[in-house]
Amino acid sequence: MASPEIEKRREDQRPSSQIEDTVPQILGPQSSKGPPLGKDTHDHNKPSSAIEEHGTRTHASSSIYEKYKPVFHLFIWLLFTGWWIAGLCLHGIHDSTGSRTGWLKPFLVWLAITLRFVFFYVPITVITKPMHWVWTNTGVRFTALVPEKLRLPLSGAFVVAVFLIGGFASAESKDNTRANRAVSLFGLAVIVFAMWATSKNRKAIKWHTVIVGMLMQFIIALFVLRSTAGCETDGTSDDIFAFFSELARDLLGFAKNGIAFLTDKDASKLTWFLITVLPAVVFFIALVQLLYYNGILQWFIGKFAIFFFWTLRVSGAEAVVASASPFIGQGESAILIKPFVEFLTMAELHQIMCSGFATIAGSVLIAYIALGVNAQALISSCVMSIPASLAISKLRYPETEETLTSGRVVIPEVDEHKATNSLHAFANGAWLGLKIAGMILATLLCIIAILGLADGLLTWWGRYLNINDPPLTVELIVGYICYPIAFLLGVPRNGDLLKVGQLLGTKLVVNEFVAYSNLQTDPRYADLSARSRLISSYALAGFANLGSLGTQIGVLSQIAPGRTGDISKVAFSALIAGAVSTLTSASIAGLLIQDQAAYFKPSAASG
Length: 607
What we know:
The chain has helices at residues 4-13, 49-53, 60-67, 69-91, 104-121, 125-137, 139-145, 148-168, 178-197, 207-226, 240-262, 265-268, 273-276, 278-293, 296-312, 316-328, 330-335, 338-341, 346-358, 362-371, 375-396, 422-463, 474-481, 483-488, 496-509, 512-521, 530-539, 546-559, 564-592. It is mostly helical.
């Protein structure tokens, strides 16, 4: 339980008028581009609060935009509508030239723009109120017909049935036999049981969050790995995740343009880590900062947060951080709720740290793609980690206190180091990217060097015990420790178990960067089966390692110095929960994947 002083401060921070659970509020950081994100205004002649606050720095173009906003919106909408219709006329719905000119991706772009402009002028309640009415008169009434004692067992049985049908109904393929799928499903059950057995308070577990979170994770995986809209590996379909993967790989090409300018075209084609990976990290972080300044990133995070807030019944702070972690990383996501960190419950602190450990950030995702890791696996793993981290964390450390952000989703304004305009934001992002790239470079250099030192000492020590083939190394030790985990994930029993165990151990003890580098470049892993390689790609996609443990404690302690002791108490448990969340995604991938070899065709990024 939190101390009386913290409870008093929570009461002082609690709003005077409670927001009803049925109408969550999103307060996005204000932007010079328009009104607060997620908040629809009807008086569009009134200047935004951002313009009022920074009136002395308002440019004439911004004033013109505010005055003629409807005209600008109409022009942009007509432009994209014409583009979409022209594409349909020129290429049709089924285009023989392939997925680059299919109908689905431009339609989704047009739909997103249309909805965004519509909700500038029409309150979103015109949709949410009918949806709420329909749900109240269908789902709620149907649930009421089921005796309360049977609701939880029936919900669990339904989820198990979905897993069984989704996992075993499809035909077998090489390595993806039903026996291998059964092992992956068994491993998933073992993971859930282990989290329940080691739970902080088994009686306080809210099974709704656990059941819905696992179901949502499985449905996302079904969409990605089985549907043609989610992912079609033959390249003829307009698949969504392949589209995002293609965009991510294209970013590498844009970064190479900068390298070619600074050096020459031949240097930009080198596959060195220093040339291929780090410049892409710098450019991507600068781009993220630009999107953040203009409010675009917060808008997406807000929509994700509302969805998970409603479906999983978690607090607003937890929903925001879980939704933001795959986009902006483990430290930056906590800054989004900086005003609330000091008043978080112990379970919320656990969940916030777990979300950071369970996924990788967009800033380094591009680096892994540059190494040649399958982009679709990385992107889908990031999305799957959101419900997974919420479910696993609430299973291991359930909520027993009253939360400050219960019933509302809030993304407060962060004024610290705020940019004055888009160019300033992009420059700040470039500087931040340079610092992060330098940190990655120095960290990897030191870690690989210290690993070499440890391996040298262990090999020398093992030589006197006749441990020579293979020699005694850190990787060998952690490989045997993680051997059972590799088996439970569904890795084929053909010699791959120890190798995948070594990758998992390297990721946990060192970091995922070194593990991914070994997977892609080390000759010892060149003969891994396609199934083992895919499961490894999912299992390594998280920040759960000892180095990140120190990072998270440091960041949260700086935000809320008075909670350092509480943060340290839950940190290791959150690390375990985050690692387990990533492993559940790997198990589900092993359960659902069919044509795993198609996921490892030569990557544009790696070339």
